Amino acid sequence: MSEGEVTEITLRALEGAPLADSAIRDMVVATAHAIAERQGLEVARIHAEDDHITVRLRAGRVEAVGLALELRRLTTRWYTQKYGTETLWGEPSSSEEEGEEWS
Length: 103
What we know:
Blueprint: E1 7-12, H1 22-39, E2 43-48, E3 52-57, H2 61-83, H3 95-98
Helix pairs in contact: 1-2
């Protein structure tokens, strides 16, 4: 990471508006702050809407992606245990089903 680097990353629900509920939104935002603190990352800004959360970090892209992955993992686990549903963010369709090929 170069000094002063800022990276913004968005975690978006694939369907619906799960963050429209303020209790869920507050938990997701608090979890993002906790992950950043635990990893020694400085949060420049967090913005949440009904269907996504955007986190701006004073860090590089790798750190931002790591935070987003951990945020998805932790909040999905919390949400599924609390509400008994399959997922908070939705599951992407399989690239195999859509015929997408990677080379």
